[in-house]
Design goal:
With about 270 residues, the protein is an alpha/beta fold. It has helices spanning about 70-75, 135-150, 170-175, 190-195, 225-245, and strands spanning about 10, 20-25, 40-45, 45-55, 80-90, 100-105, 105-110, 125, 150-155, 155-160, 180-185, 200-210, 265. It has a single domain, classed as 3-Layer(aba) Sandwich (Rossmann fold), CATH 3.40.50. Helices cover about 25% and strands about 25% of the residues. Strands 1, 2, 3, 4, 5, 6, 7, 9, 10, 11 and 12 form an 11-stranded mixed beta sheet that branches. It has a two-stranded antiparallel ribbon with strand order 8-13. Strand 3 (about 40-45) and strand 4 form a beta hairpin. The protein is globular. The termini are far apart.
Length: about 270
């Protein structure tokens, strides 16, 4: 029986189960409910890694109903300190092309109604979100993408919409005009909750489409669920290759600021 602990967590699609060696599944329940599915714990190059399929094994959970708090709490309970997330995102700029990867460094939250904090009791905590993604983990990912010859963007801002519907043309035009680079449905509150647990979080975002198309380009059509699935499935092998190479390069000790995210954050009188 494998030990119920892990140092690195991966959150992504069900296609990532094959990443882990000698994996076993554990069923967990947190004070915030059950995670999206059973957690797989196995090895990657001698490092103990846990995996959660964000939408469940059969992709049955829509983005607005993902149990984000339970997922992050469960990973935290088994000792995970660093999270590598994979996401399918739409592009809002011509230079962010389908099949390219983005190491996100900023997000804009446009969701509503999601349970987005662990601090909803009598303790008032204001966690800084100035740099929501782990700079150390992002840098390691970009360096590994360089070595593997993967086309990527070292930084990018994602606007997170509630879903499950895609944007209207007017909404997409507004997001583009604001200077946002990509659009998705699952980064928030996942990244914010990880910060509240002082966990490092990095996203490997795979561009799958041009959202509702590009102005003046009749050959680029609005996104469809089928298109997103096809592009992501075609590139999942490359994403897994990157993660397999990235995990053993992660230092045992953290030198980033994530581990001190709660320092001075509690507000009391």
């Amino acid at each position: 029986m494998i030990s119920m602990d892990a140092e690195i967590g991966i959150i992504g699609g069900s296609g990532f189960y094959s990443l882990l060696e000698n994996a076993e599944e554990i069923e967990m329940r947190t004070e915030y409910g059950a995670p999206s599915d059973k957690i797989s714990i196995g090895m990657i190059s001698g490092r103990r890694v846990a995996f959660i399929p964000r939408h469940g094994k059969s992709h049955r959970i829509p983005p607005q109903r993902v149990p984000y708090r339970a997922n992050i709490a469960a990973l935290n309970e088994i000792g995970v300190k660093r999270i590598i997330a994979t996401n399918a995102v739409g592009s809002l700029k011509p230079e962010f092309r389908p099949s390219e990867m983005v190491f996100l460094d900023q997000y804009v939250n446009m969701t509503h109604g999601r349970d987005d904090t662990f601090f909803d009791n009598d303790i008032v905590v204001h966690v800084s979100s100035a740099e929501p993604y782990c700079e150390e983990l992002r840098g390691l990912g970009a360096n590994m993408a360089d070595k593997l010859g993967i086309k990527y963007h070292k930084s990018g801002t994602i606007v997170v919409i509630n879903g499950p519907r895609f944007s209207t043309k007017a909404e997409s035009r507004m997001f583009s005009a604001q200077g946002f680079d990509t659009i998705g449905m699952t980064q928030y509150p996942e990244v914010a909750l990880a910060r509240e647990k002082e966990m490092c979080y990095a996203s490997i975002a795979l561009v799958t489409d041009y959202d509702v198309g590009l102005e003046g380009r009749s050959d680029i059509k609005p996104v469809s669920a089928e298109e997103v699935g096809n592009i992501f499935n075609d590139n999942v092998k490359l994403v897994k290759e990157l993660i397999r190479a990235l995990v053993p390069s992660v230092p045992k000790e953290r030198s980033c600021k994530c581990k001190n995210a709660l320092d001075g954050a509690t507000f009391s009188r």
